């Protein structure tokens, strides 16, 4: 598991721009793997599309925000990536339904009933799932979640963003993030429970 975003030194905008390419290379090395997992899950396992979305997000980040610090890049990158994903999903929906422009196409489930729950904090997905589970098993289970639950879980549990930042990235309310995240955790616990030998109950 990669460490949380690291603090960067205070630098002037001109210095940040001059070192942008090197910083971007290091930034890409750190987040590409996790971003690809997220996009592959969101695009139903389309590796090529996931790669394109991640690369386009990096290009946009470098083009528009080269003067920002590396710390500022983390939420900016995932915001851009989320926007790229939503654009792709709209195009796919229009392609599947040629006349969908005559009606509103609902791609997200942010209108779901928001649960009155205390914000959950899960800095590491393995903290609430059995340690014996492999990353591949967890990723397969994540891929079965609705897209917005995937995003909420990955941004909160894998990237370590707080609820407020996650809501900004996903362009939704903090209440929606809490609900998506809560339901994702419950679904993952249920779908992976049969792999956990430490859960109670008979094995017969």
TrEMBL record:
<keyword id="KW-0805">Transcription regulation</keyword>
<dbReference type="InterPro" id="IPR013325">
    <property type="entry name" value="RNA_pol_sigma_r2"/>
</dbReference>
<keyword id="KW-0548">Nucleotidyltransferase</keyword>
<dbReference type="Pfam" id="PF08281">
    <property type="entry name" value="Sigma70_r4_2"/>
</dbReference>
<dbReference type="InterPro" id="IPR013324">
    <property type="entry name" value="RNA_pol_sigma_r3/r4-like"/>
</dbReference>
<dbReference type="GO" id="GO:0003677">
    <property type="term" value="F:DNA binding"/>
</dbReference>
<dbReference type="InterPro" id="IPR014284">
    <property type="entry name" value="RNA_pol_sigma-70_dom"/>
</dbReference>
<keyword id="KW-0731">Sigma factor</keyword>
<keyword id="KW-0808">Transferase</keyword>
<dbReference type="GO" id="GO:0016987">
    <property type="term" value="F:sigma factor activity"/>
</dbReference>
<dbReference type="InterPro" id="IPR013249">
    <property type="entry name" value="RNA_pol_sigma70_r4_t2"/>
</dbReference>
<keyword id="KW-0804">Transcription</keyword>
<dbReference type="GO" id="GO:0006352">
    <property type="term" value="P:DNA-templated transcription initiation"/>
</dbReference>
<dbReference type="InterPro" id="IPR036388">
    <property type="entry name" value="WH-like_DNA-bd_sf"/>
</dbReference>
<comment type="similarity">
    <text>Belongs to the sigma-70 factor family. ECF subfamily.</text>
</comment>
<feature type="domain" description="RNA polymerase sigma factor 70 region 4 type 2">
    <location>
        <begin position="136"/>
        <end position="188"/>
    </location>
</feature>
<dbReference type="GO" id="GO:0003899">
    <property type="term" value="F:DNA-directed RNA polymerase activity"/>
</dbReference>
<dbReference type="InterPro" id="IPR039425">
    <property type="entry name" value="RNA_pol_sigma-70-like"/>
</dbReference>
<protein>
    <submittedName>
        <fullName>RNA polymerase sigma factor</fullName>
        <ecNumber>2.7.7.6</ecNumber>
    </submittedName>
</protein>
